[in-house]
């Protein structure tokens, strides 16, 4: 046992205090003792112990252990993360179970066995160190993500985006796991941050992990953490993202990239609500709300055997579909103006806006990179522009994909309508409400057209 940790011992028997002080002094950083539970407040404030050895029975009540439970409640009010070990000469299973449920870490019977006591104390100090580390990491997360305390700036007047906003509002009082589906660049991360902002966990950590950028060999250590010596470069223990996110929200971006073996490990952690760091068999309870996102057709992956159906059920209590920018109509111009104002300010340019022709060019473009591509296009145009108005030439966009269209079909309105409906149904994967949104008509009107065209 390393010489570290501050220990507070509370017991009405001075002989016990003397013996424990003598026993522990060579192994720990510092020991304080008291026979008076009334001084708990004082020691918690001035000494700030790492571990508290607390007697369950004092002179006033020598058998039930109620005094010890009252003291434990007082300690945990002062420090909810306190590490408390109960001690009593009247050890029994019922008391042990009750002690753990009340918030104690372990139960030490009197008389104690020296080696067992030291081992228990060593584990308690390690647990305290781990909790300190988690607290520091969470404080760092809050400090580094102060912008998360404001409402994420999501822009859109289109019906499709209004449906997304309505869904976010409906989920504001729930802890349901959410799966966000959408192409690259549609703003899935903004939706995730909005869900967190309007959730009961708003004040708790928001931890993200991009599963598309982490090699499979590092997945476990990143998500679950590791102990010192777990592998060659593990020079000290490290908490994983899931542990740091406990009490808050974990955003698993690009979950479709997760291999089947890793899917299995993630599913186990979600189902058991506990994890084990690499290099140890001990478990750590977790309480996280999962928000996942992917740009792939995850339902097709399930059909093809590339994604576990039971994991999908766990992560998609609610699904949110983010529409591509090309299906959001004049949201393109709203977003363009938003980014234009941002970059005018950033680069200190005097630009009054977009010409009519520039707006038309942006509206005609298919935006394969979605909002992210639009943002980069506006920033590039602002940087390179020397005029007070952005014109079509300021936007260097990718060539539009060529479309092979039958001229006769265009002249046949019924065929054109049939073609448009078939494309909308395909894009919405058979969802009539979404297909109607794409076509700009009501669900009822779509029903009538399907019936009329025999589709």
From TrEMBL:
Q: Which residues carry this modification: 4-aspartylphosphate?
A: 55
The Sigma-54 factor interaction domain extends over 154-383
- Coiled-coil stretches are none
Q: GO molecular function of the protein, one example?
A: sequence-specific DNA binding
User: Is DNA-binding there in the keyword field?
Assistant: yes
Known Pfam families for this protein? AAA_lid_14, HTH_8, Response_reg, Sigma54_activat
Annotated CDD domains:
AAA
Q: Which UniProt keywords apply?
A: ATP-binding, DNA-binding, Nucleotide-binding, Phosphoprotein, Transcription, Transcription regulation
Q: InterPro entries, alphabetically? A: AAA+_ATPase, AAA_lid_NorR, CheY-like_superfamily, Homeodomain-like_sf, HTH_Fis, P-loop_NTPase, Sig_transdc_resp-reg_receiver, Sigma_54_int
Q: Which domain of life is it from?
A: Bacteria
> Does the record carry DNA damage as a key word?
no
Response regulatory domain ranges (all copies): 6-125
Q: Name one GO biological process term.
A: regulation of DNA-templated transcription
Q: What name is this protein filed under?
A: Sigma-54 factor interaction domain-containing protein
What lineage is on file? Bacteria, Pseudomonadati, Bacteroidota, Bacteroidia, Bacteroidales
């Amino acid at each position: 046992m390393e010489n570290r940790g501050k220990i507070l011992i509370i017991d009405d028997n001075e002989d016990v205090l003397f013996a424990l002080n003598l026993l522990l002094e060579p192994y720990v950083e510092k020991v304080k003792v008291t026979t008076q539970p009334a001084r708990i407040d004082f020691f918690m404030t001035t000494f700030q112990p790492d571990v508290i050895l607390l007697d369950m029975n004092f002179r006033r009540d020598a058998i039930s252990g109620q005094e010890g439970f009252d003291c434990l409640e007082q300690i945990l009010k002062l420090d909810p993360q306190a590490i408390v070990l109960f001690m009593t000469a009247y050890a029994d299973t019922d008391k042990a179970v009750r002690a753990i449920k009340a918030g104690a870490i372990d139960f030490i019977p009197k008389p104690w066995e020296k080696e067992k006591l030291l081992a228990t104390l060593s584990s308690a100090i390690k647990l305290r160190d781990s909790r300190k580390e988690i607290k520091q990491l969470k404080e760092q997360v809050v400090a580094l993500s102060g912008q998360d305390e404001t409402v994420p700036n999501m822009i859109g007047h289109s019906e499709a985006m209004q449906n997304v906003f309505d869904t976010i509002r409906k989920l504001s009082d729930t802890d349901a796991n959410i799966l966000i589906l959408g192409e690259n660049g549609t703003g899935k991360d903004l939706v995730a941050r909005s869900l967190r902002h309007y959730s009961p966990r708003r004040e708790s950590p928001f931890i993200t992990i991009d599963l598309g950028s982490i090699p499979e060999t590092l997945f476990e250590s990143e998500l679950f953490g590791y102990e010192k010596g777990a592998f060659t470069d593990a020079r000290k223990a490290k908490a994983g993202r899931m542990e740091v996110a406990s009490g808050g929200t974990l955003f698993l971006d690009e979950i479709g990239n997760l291999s089947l073996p890793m899917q299995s490990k993630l599913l186990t952690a979600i189902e058991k609500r506990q994890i084990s760091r690499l290099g140890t068999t001990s478990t750590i309870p977790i309480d996280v709300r999962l928000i996942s996102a992917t740009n792939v057709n995850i339902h097709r992956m399930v059909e093809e055997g590339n994604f576990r159906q039971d994991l999908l059920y766990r992560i998609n209590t609610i699904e949110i579909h983010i529409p591509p920018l090309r299906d959001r109509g004049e949201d393109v111009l709203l977003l363009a103006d938003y980014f234009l104002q941002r970059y005018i300010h950033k680069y200190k340019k005097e630009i009054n806006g977009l010409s009519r022709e520039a707006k038309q060019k942006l509206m005609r473009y298919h935006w394969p990179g979605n909002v992210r591509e639009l943002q980069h296009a506006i920033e590039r145009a602002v940087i390179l522009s020397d005029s007070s108005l952005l014109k079509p030439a300021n936007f260097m966009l990718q060539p539009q994909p060529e479309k092979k269209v039958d001229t006769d079909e265009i002249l046949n309105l019924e065929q054109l309508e049939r073609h448009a409906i078939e494309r909308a149904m395909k894009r919405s994967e058979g969802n009539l409400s979404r297909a109607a949104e794409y076509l700009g008509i009501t669900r009822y009107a779509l029903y009538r057209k399907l019936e009329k065209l025999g589709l």
